[in-house]
Amino acid sequence: MLKKLFIFMLLFVGLSIPAQAAEIDGSAPIFCAFTRAVQCHHAVGCDLVTPEEILLPTFVKVDLQKKIVTMPEAGSTRTTEIKNSFRADGKLILQGHEGRAWSVIINEKTGQMTLALASEEDGFVLFGSCMVP
């Protein structure tokens, strides 16, 4: 009986430990979801907005092998080129330009992500999470 209880406890503890997610290192496509956004304009200040309000999709696909970010839209797909990427201190950093300069930092272990977009008159900061499917 004690042996059965021990086996049950091992199975229970083993099943309660979450599976380790794949580390985000850029070797495979990454899927990201924006959860919060802040929009700032030099003349009026900053406001909380949704990604949709600033014409960004909720989800994006990052493919470092192809050096593109894919943004699905109703009836089409928009892409932007990744001009620069590197890894430093457990973070993946991506940069580019598409009407505005943008920079993304992704924690390779947790997937937490921050995107900054900047132009001469306004800026945006978006927060979210990324994962390797």
Q: Any overview of this molecule?
A:
This protein is mostly beta strands and 133 residues long. It has a single domain (22-131), classed as Beta Barrel (Lipocalin), CATH 2.40.128. Helices cover 11% and strands 53% of the residues. It has one helix and ten strands; from the N terminus they run αββββββββββ. It has one helix at residues 2-16; strands spanning 30-41, 45-49, 59-63, 68-73, 76-81, 84-88, 91-97, 101-107, 112-118, 122-131. Strands 1, 2, 3, 4, 5, 6, 7, 8, 9 and 10 form a ten-stranded antiparallel sheet that branches. β6 (84-88) and β7 (91-97) form a beta hairpin.
Major sheet summary line: 10 strands, antiparallel
Rg computed from alpha carbons, rounded to a whole number of angstroms? 19 Å
What coarse outline follows from CA principal-axis ratios? globular
What percent of the residues sit in helical stretches (DSSP H or I)? 10-25%
Percent strand: over 45%
CATH architecture: Beta Barrel
Distance between termini? Answer: 42 Å
The domain count comes to 1
| CATH domain topology | Lipocalin
Uncertain residue segments? 1-20
Number of helices: 1
Q: What integer is the average pLDDT?
A: 83
> How many β-strand stretches?
10
- Assign the structural class, choosing from mainly alpha, mainly beta, alpha/beta, alpha+beta, or little secondary structure: mainly beta
CATH class: Mainly Beta
**H-E order:** HEEEEEEEEEE
